[in-house]
Amino acid sequence: MIYLSEVETPLGVLAIAECKERFLAVVPGGLNGSPLISLRPRLEPWGALTLAVRRPLAQRFAGFLGGGERGRWSVDLSLAEGALARSVYQTLFRTRPGDLLTPVELAERIGRSTEVEAVEAALLKSPLLGVVPSHRVRKDGAPLGSPEEQVWAEFFAGLPDELEARAPCLR
Length: 171
Hints:
Elements lengths: L1 E8 L2 E8 L3 E6 L13 E2 L4 H18 L17 H12 L8 H7 L6 H9 L13 E2 L2 E2 L3 H11 L3 H4 L7
Antiparallel strand pairs: 1-2, 2-3, 3-4, 5-6
Helix pairs in contact: 2-4, 3-4
C-alpha cells in the first residue's frame, strides 16, 4: 500500500491510500487506528478517466478535509468510457448539493427512461472515487450502494458545497 496522507476530520482520522491493486482506500480511524465504521475500498477500473484523476484527487480530498484549499475540482468527463456513463456523471455534477434523485429520475433526466438498470450500473462502476456524487441517488430511501455510504452522505451533507459534492463512492 502506498500511503498518501492521514487527516483529522469531524468524523475522526481518515487515512487516504493508493494501493498497488489499483484502488484508493479512504480508511476511517487511520491506518493504525480502529476504524469508526467498516468501509470497503473499491477496485478502480482502468481507463483514461481513472488515471487522470486518481492521485490528484486523493491529494485534494486530503487537503479539503484537512482544511486546505477548497477550490472547485474539475474533471474532463469526455474521458469517461461510454456515452451513458458521461451523461450520468454530467447530470450528477449538475445536481445541486442536498438534492436527491432516484435511479428512475436520473434515467429520465438523461433521456434513458427505459434503461434504469444501465444507469445504476454506470453509478456502481464509477471510476471517480470522491468526484461523482452518486450518494445523491437514492433507491427506496437509501443510498444506492452499501449501508456505510449513508454515513458518508450524512457526514458530507453538513460540509461546504465544494466538498460535499465530492463525497466518496465506496463500494
